[in-house]
DNA sequence: GGATGTGAATGCATTCACAGCA
DNA sequence: TGCTGTGAATGCATTCACATCC
């Protein structure tokens, strides 16, 4: 088995591993058996050296003169990322976002299965949403134990997110996927991954503003058609 | 006005600027008039030096011996990020995710207003979804010009995302907020910000796996209570 | 005294360039 | 020859530490 020291792997390399996996699956769909670091890099606008170094953090997967065997690399990357098996996941928050997440097919494809849904609103509890029955938060602990849940998704408003996180941590959950626009504080043994729409929107706004401003510096001499 | 060279600003600093803004608004709600880099940093688990350096990339906003005036800094950061005015935004894709985005109040609060919704499915076109009427993609160009839209959100399946991006670029859109799990390729004058659930999930899975593995190295001697 | 802004020093990530293997 | 894996060199971001100002 590949053996690597996680603390020696740069964070950006782990991010890119996900991108490699997706490209590899695309290449596989096109029946490509083998791929070079150059090809894989070009498909993602990265250098070949970057690709090789990233993969080498995790083990020796390539074959000099040949490249990487696509099937093999997919399997290895999935194993490294932990997506070679099913994760049972719970969802807290059955608002608009929660509903969209319940309906989202992508989770299942990636090996993440939402198996329980919770909401603090008594009006929502025990109503069915698709295949899910919404439970009260008091059921967190027994449900987690019964179903062997290790990951939780937080899709509640900002002001209750930290409280929900605390509850999840108390039940022994190991990872939190946070959609609320706040930085959660959790013990170091709990993993957190966040989707922060506010931050992303502001980044986009900043990017566009820069371009617009740069344009203004070269006053818009209309040279069209 | 503050004047900074965008190319001299590290990307991570721009990300953190968004976080600073959110904290500043929280401090303002608690009627705090002034804040030091130390306070601001602690609230986000960053060092004071980091905060000062980040802000200094954009101008001189602080007062030695005093700190930063909260109101003032909020206004300046908003101006830098470009969220001190309303952005008209269009949305392509009226599936589950699109519906959630239409219902999401956070956009409006941040100064992003969805003013038009498009979908390629003829069965959805001209149906109303809340306050929105879904238009066919053929209406992109005229709508963008009529409403002065500069940003587009892509909430369509992976296999049509690049085609939609190409159409948006062709209409002269300046920024794209991409929810589809693909790396879009667009000209360099078009800004892209992406939310990639697949990548985020895999990061979380990786994080949790590391902790689990580390735990296994010290075999679970139960020392509870 | 209490705080900012910033050059200098450190640390981390990427790129280079090449030895070595199929 | 073609390609990987990797030490060495570079480049970028963070942290330190201090001159400066209210």
Commentary on this structure:
- The structure is a homodimer of 225-residue chains.
- The first copy, chain A, has 225 residues and is an alpha/beta fold.
- Chain A folds into two domains: 6-80, Winged helix-like DNA-binding domain superfamily/Winged helix DNA-binding domain (Arc Repressor Mutant, subunit A); 87-199, Rossmann fold.
- Chain A has nine helices and nine strands.
- Chain A has a seven-stranded mixed sheet with strand order 5-6-4-3-7-8-9, sandwiched between helices. A two-stranded antiparallel ribbon of chain A has the order 1-2.
- Residues 219-225 of chain A have low confidence and may be disordered.
- Chains A and B meet through helix 1, helix 5, strand 8, strand 9 and helix 9 of A and helix 1, helix 5, strand 8, strand 9 and helix 9 of B.
- The structure holds a DNA duplex (22 and 22 nucleotides).
CATH class of the largest domain in chain A: Alpha Beta
What is the rounded distance between the termini of chain A?
Answer: 61 Å
Beta-strand percent range of chain A: 15-25%
> How many beta-strand elements of chain A?
9
Q: What's the architecture of the largest domain in chain A in CATH terms?
A: 3-Layer(aba) Sandwich
Poorly predicted regions of chain A are 219-225
Helical residues, percent of chain A: 40-55%
Number of helices of chain A: 9
Encode the helix/strand succession of chain A as letters. Answer: HEHHEHEHHEEEHEHEEH
Return the average pLDDT of chain A rounded to an integer: 93
Largest interface (CB within 8 Å) is between: A-B, 60 and 60 residues
Structural class assignment of chain A: alpha/beta
Number of domains of chain A: 2
> What profile does the largest beta sheet of chain A have?
7 strands, mixed
